[in-house]
Amino acid sequence: MTTPATLMYATGRRKTAIARVWVFPGQKGFIVNGQDSAKYLKRANLQMLVEQPLKSANLLGQVRVRARVQGGGVAGQAGAIQLGIARAIVGLNPEMRATMRKGGFMTRDPREKERKKPGRKGARRSFQFTKR
To answer: Do 106 and 87 contact (CB within 8 A), yes or no?
Structure first.
């Protein structure tokens, strides 16, 4: 095994959100865009989503996480942070890859917004039909 790194950087994406995540071992804290994660991700389910990779690796409260997120909504940003944290944990400890893969944290969600098509009102919705 290689020597443990003191800092790990990873990128996560979800929909149009892009998260750059830094994980520092041996310290506590969770900062998102310069704010505490509880303040930035106000909904409890989003906070739990972001903390899931840390819980499955038994690292919650043992590492400091700093994330810079751009684009998308809050839910998409939370998904991007989750993927970034999982990738950073695997970067720190490659033996955690199986655990992260089993929890589904290493797979990027490919679902994106479908584009609007010409001759239609939206991606699939047609314009209203007038009989007369």
So the answer is: yes
